[in-house]
Amino acid sequence: VSVANQVIICICTTKSRSDLTVRLVDGPNRCSGRVEVYQDGSWGTVCDDNWALLDAQVVCRELSCGPATEAPHQAHFGEGSGSILLDDVACMGSEGSLLECSSGGIGNHDCGHDEDASVTYGISRVRLVNGPNNCSGRVEVFDSGQWGTVCDDDWDQRDAQVMCRELGCGEALEAFGSARFGKGSGSISLDDLACSGSEVSLLQCPHSGLGNHDCGHHEDAGVTCAGPTENSSISRVRLVNGPNNCSGRVEVFHSGQWGTVCDDDWDLLDAKVVCRALGCGVALEAPDQAHFGQGRGEIWLKDVQCSGNEGSLLGCSSDGLGSHNCGHSEDAAAICEGQSVRLVDGPNRCSGRVEVYQDGSWGTVCDDNWAVLDAQVVCRELSCGPATEAPHQAHFGEGSGSILLDDVACMGSEGSLLECSSGGIGNHDCGHDEDASVTCMMGKSQSTITVDKNSLCSEELRII
């Protein structure tokens, strides 16, 4: 709207409430502690007025920590500092985020830090690792202080369904055997699982007993889940029949089944979108003519025309789902550079201990000189938005194996952490108690501006 010689009063939001994040601090582990939420560059606490188990349950689900067991009051894990950001929280228990619950509004309270709210969780004992996202990967179970794998004997869709539901990852799409997501190490925790599909936890399913098995790690079970929401792009695209998770025939999930993509107009820009969506780095090639073998069933996409910046292949221009005149001899493929950086042991895929991939294994990064500029490169590389913190001293737990980088000094503009200045691969004088970490803003934009009478800020805009 063109306006001249007027003073306009606008109520605006410079950061939407959905951009806030939640964490637990000062507890014995990442799944128990004082509740804090993030707003305008700093963390603040939650008042315990009306704080109850339903509220704790929402935090529990948001952090993928398993069921909430307690909702302690009166600064059970110590008093916080700075702002008190929420009061009179009243969750139904089904919300996806604490910030979706009813409350007195951001910053409105009549409390002191002696009333800081807390949460205690039953910590999740299952996880998925080495996959393209936190809803696909090798199945692992925590027992006796360590993570172990699950043997693929009798592993099927019903077992996978329980696993996906337990992790809040929606429906199970496929149950893999034969170490599809790589061989694990250490113990094999479960064998001969026989879930009905209705169990709440994988450990509730009949099995041969923890630690009892006749398997090797070449039989490690894996799973691909649909993702946490119906509209999520997680696991809607995959690469199959290639030499690894980052090369293969492109397949798209629609109407309950996987189908292929026709190679008409298929090019490197299209492959770029697939590689980035799967966390597989740069696209190297966009092969056509069923380079990785012919698929079966439906051909879902044809004449795909990506600009290269889309977040998902399904966001690119095409002839529409199911519209084609192709055969499977024209199935499209992608070859990606492969993921070189990941974040592990954090509350989500965008927060955790930094690990880099080199010579067939993952290793950690030393926190010497580790700073937000370095974290910024990691967050951008993983499509996780801006970095908010660059924690030191194994903030998300100590890694194992090699320490691969030390004295990292990024400018902040690099495309990958491995492009930053460092002491060189494998050169360090550190221990794992110095493992570097990152917290990103979960890939959400911080620049959204909306008009909202319940906004977090007000501005007077003078248009002359």
UniProtKB/TrEMBL annotation:
One GO cellular component term: membrane
Short name of one Pfam family: SRCR
UniProt keywords, alphabetically: Disulfide bond, Glycoprotein, Receptor, Repeat, Signal
Disulfide bond sites: 47-111, 91-101, 151-215, 164-225, 195-205, 262-326, 275-336, 306-316, 366-430, 379-440, 410-420
Residues of the SRCR domain: 22-122, 126-226, 237-337, 341-441
Record's keyword annotation contains Hydrolase: no
KW Ribosomal protein (keyword) present: no
Cited SUPFAM superfamilies: SRCR-like (SSF56487)
InterPro entries xrefs: SRCR, SRCR-like_dom_sf
Function: Binds to extracellular matrix proteins. Binds to pathogen-associated molecular patterns (PAMPs) present on the cell walls of Gram-positive and Gram-negative bacteria and fungi, behaving as a pattern recognition receptor (PRR). Induces bacterial and fungal aggregation and subsequent inhibition of PAMP-induced cytokine release. Does not possess intrinsic bactericidal activity. May play a role in the innate defense and homeostasis of certain epithelial surfaces.
Complex and partners: Interacts with LGALS1 and laminin.
Name used for this protein in its record: Soluble scavenger receptor cysteine-rich domain-containing protein SSC5D
UniProt source species: Oncorhynchus mykiss (Rainbow trout)
